[in-house]
Design a protein that fits this description.
The protein is α/β, with parallel strands linked by helices. It contains eight helices and seven strands; from the N terminus they run E-H-E-H-E-H-E-H-E-H-E-H-H-H-E. The longest helix has 24 residues. The structure holds nicotinamide-adenine-dinucleotide.
């Protein structure tokens, strides 16, 4: 069994919960985050906890994981950390994009659109290519990216991110299709609405979204980061070896529930 997992966006929300859960499962944690100010304090809390659980088998890097220079600088270090062996998981859990509409007072610009689609979508492809070329992906490696219902529904402020989600899903499908022959699988994990830092940035009405979601969700609550972490823990088991090129839903059935 590979002993290490790599999480892009591992300081808060889904990525942090996954780091803690997989640390408890016995994996060493390599994670990237990009936090300043108050967010940095939250990151320190996560890192301290993961460090304790893993007994120090934990490496967090506070830098822009979407930059090619970051990939080129840190991938050789990752190879040293894993002693050359492949990682068990590459998880993309980065939330960093422009939350605006396509029209109206602040129509999205080309620069914002390109940035959002790169950071929240395409960057997973470049990480995967570079890790694969360095033999850091192998038999049993999982590639996972987080998606949302906004991949097929139009919502206020979610236009650019929804494009990134669709791009990521297509990239994941194609990665699984091309790398499946090596025993490497790639899947999207669709979370329901989860009260995290990212949600508060999508809309000022996020508390309203949360209340409406609780009513709409068949299980009468919102998704938690631990729900996602537990699902990822399951997906790392050998029994999940044949799940590939899929979208896996972890939302209590929210995506099947109408809005009325
Ligand atoms: N919160 C929800 O309702 C929800 C629902 C479905 C899917 N998702 C998806 O889950 C993923 C994680 O979001 P979250 O809700 O946990 O948000 P979050 O804000 O709690 O976490 C985002 C993480 O990304 C990191 N990050 C941001 N920019 C980065 C960069 N350039 N390089 C490296 N790290 C960077 C942050 O440091 C943090 O660790 C996102 O892809 C999001 O779209 C969220």
């Amino acid at each position: 069994m590979s002993e290490w997992v790599l999480i892009l966006g591992g300081s808060t929300g889904h990525g942090a919960a996954t780091a803690k859960r997989l640390a408890k499962d016995g994996y060493g944690i390599i994670a990237f985050h990009f936090d300043r100010g108050d967010a940095k304090k939250l990151a320190v809390e996560t890192i301290t906890e993961v460090n304790e659980i893993t007994g120090g088998r934990c490496h967090y890097f506070n830098t822009n994981a979407a930059a090619e220079e970051t990939m080129d600088k840190y991938i050789p270090q990752i190879k040293e950390i894993t002693s050359g062996g492949p990682v068990k998981l590459l998880l993309h859990s980065i939330a960093f994009g422009t939350t605006t509409n396509l029209f109206g007072e602040k129509p999205v610009t080309q620069r914002q659109m390109d940035m959002t689609v790169h950071v929240m979508g395409n960057s997973l492809l470049y990480w995967t290519q570079k890790l694969f070329n360095m033999q850091l992906l192998g038999e049993g490696t999982r590639i996972l990216g987080l998606t949302s219902e906004g991949n097929y529904l139009a919502m206020d402020g979610y236009g650019p991110v929804s494009v990134a989600k669709v791009a990521m899903e297509a990239i994941i499908r194609q990665i699984g299709w091309e790398l499946g022959r090596y025993g490497i699988t790639a899947n999207s994990l669709q979370a329901g609405i989860t009260p995290t830092r990212a949600l508060t940035k999508i809309t000022d009405n996020w508390e309203d979204w949360v209340e409406k979601t609780k009513k709409r969700n068949p299980m009468k609550r919102t998704t938690t980061p631990n729900d996602i972490a537990n699902t990822i823990s399951l997906l790392l088991k050998q029994e999940a070896d044949f799940i590939n090129c899929s979208i896996i839903y972890c939302d209590g059935g929210e995506h099947r529930s109408g809005t009325f």
